[in-house]
Amino acid sequence: MTRKENKKALQREFDLPADEKILLMGFVGRLDWQKGVDLIATTLERVLKDFNVQFVQVGGGDGNLALSLKELQEKYPDKVGIHTHLNFTLSRLLFGGCDVILYPSRFEPCGIVQLEAMRYGALPIVRKVGGLADTVEDFDPSTGKGTGFVFKDFDEFSLYGQIVRANELYRQKELWKNAQKNAMSQDFSWGYSAKEYIRLYERALSINDLLENNPKARLDSLR
Known about the structure:
This protein is α/β, with parallel strands linked by helices. The protein has helices at 3-13, 37-50, 63-75, 88-97, 113-120, 130-135, 156-170, 173-184, 190-213, 215-222; strands at 24-28, 54-58, 80-83, 100-103, 123-127, 149-151. Helix 6 links the parallel strand 5 (123-127) and strand 6 (149-151). The mean pLDDT is 90.
């Protein structure tokens, strides 16, 4: 299936209007304070009021956060789809059908959701923290470089701004496709990581050999 077909299938799955032109955002993962799900709920309250966009969610967790999302669905039934239980099949459909994945974590040691999203061509909106900052590059329309949308401060205005950016860029199809290609071409596999580790070790060994064979350089390194 193509991404267009995945998107329509995802919209039908959540009983949302099947419209390719609407920006479809998603969240996959644990409903947790750490993941910034409360920030997503409060920010979407403003976004859904002002823009014709959609949001779908898959994953269980904190009951209060689940309630906040369900209340959002009740208020905007034609824009919000909620599934507050773990479902790996549905999660893959979100990656394959969403245009954007939201991941505004308070802190994030690594994170793999943004990596999965990029592989599928769903652009991540992330906070510049931890592993999210290490793996997602803010897209620059002037250079065509970047893999997603990145913000610094943990507040609804910052997240709101990035959602607006994504919604505007989505209307510029060539730029959007370019950003998707950038994201899908990222290599975070262990094969790539192993090569980087080998380069690091080889560099360390070469420095060690230099110090062993050059007493002056060894003395300078101790200063």
